[in-house]
Specification:
Length: 284
């Protein structure tokens, strides 16, 4: 549940910040008439994300078991790829997001109402589709359709409240640090989703090694225990993973987390040149 709360919070906050920046810019520039197309684009993006999630959930139930597992594993891998790209993109562009959105909005204002709708839709729709896909993958991995959904909805609700507080100027936090820490946690969550995605492909008979277990700690960490459920819901922990799952988990988590937390190069400011010594004044 916590993992899905984190997904909803981060993706929702990213979308909320984008909407806040767009709305604040229009209000400050006296273009309140352009607010309706913005909200229209946001509403369409939310509707598309909900429809996409519904198609994933109900469309997969008509497939055979092997087909469901193959679809689940494939979409899990795609979801991990999208989330990985998202956390690196946000880490790189968080500081310049406001100016980038202002430039796109200026172009849309010149082009007209349709361009405003498309701008808002694209800005919010990407986060919505990523959220729907990643939450669906997490639901498939945990086998619980209630708590992941509740966690994601709570995260989205928190993001909406924080976005409104940002707009009102009531909350100020270091967004760069926030997205860095939540991004690192999402990488850990994504590693578990990726490992379970490969497990689905093994159950679909697409990949071998389903019966080759790396270890089995089910006696020490029973899946039905509260702590087993907690580990399953947070990091997709499995007490009896296959060798392939452990290898995939390690090959993803270690290099991706290291690259994500690697500090960027800091340019040192140029040292000021020493001023030439002033000639001594002759004695009066």
């Amino acid at each position: 549940m916590f993992a899905n709360y984190l997904i909803g919070l981060r993706e929702g906050l990213e979308a909320s910040l984008i909407v806040c920046i767009l709305v604040a810019y229009l209000v400050k520039t006296g273009r309140r008439d352009a607010l309706r197309p913005i909200w229209t684009g946001v509403a369409i993006a939310v509707a598309v994300a909900l429809a996409f999630g519904a198609v994933l959930q109900y469309g997969s139930t008509t497939l055979t078991f092997e087909a469901q597992e193959f679809l689940g594993g494939t979409l899990s891998i795609i979801a991990v790829g999208l989330v990985t790209w998202m956390v690196f993109w946000m880490r790189r562009t968080a500081r310049h997001l406001k100016s980038e959105l202002h430039g796109k909005l200026d172009q849309a204002l010149v082009m007209g109402t349709g361009a405003l709708v498309v701008t808002a839709f694209l800005a919010v729709g990407r986060e919505g589709l990523e959220t729907a896909l990643f939450i669906w993958s997490a639901v498939q991995a945990t086998g619980d359709g209630v708590r992941p959904l509740v966690g994601a909805l709570l995260g989205l609700a928190t993001a909406v409240v924080l976005g409104w507080l940002f707009y009102r100027g009531a909350v100020r936090i270091n967004l760069g640090r926030f997205f860095t820490w939540t991004g690192a946690m999402l990488v850990v969550v994504a590693a578990g989703v990726l490992a379970y995605g490969f497990h689905d492909l093994q159950e679909a008979r697409f990949l071998p090694g389903l019966g080759t277990k790396a270890f089995d700690v089910s006696d020490a960490i029973p899946p039905g225990s509260w702590y087993g459920t907690l580990l399953k819901g947070t990091v997709n922990f499995q007490p009896d993973p296959t060798v392939l799952q452990v290898v995939v988990w390690s090959l993803y988590l270690v290099p991706v987390l290291a690259l994500f937390l690697l500090p960027g190069r800091i340019r040192r400011p140029a040292e000021p040149q020493a001023r030439p010594a002033e000639p001594a004044k002759p004695p009066a």
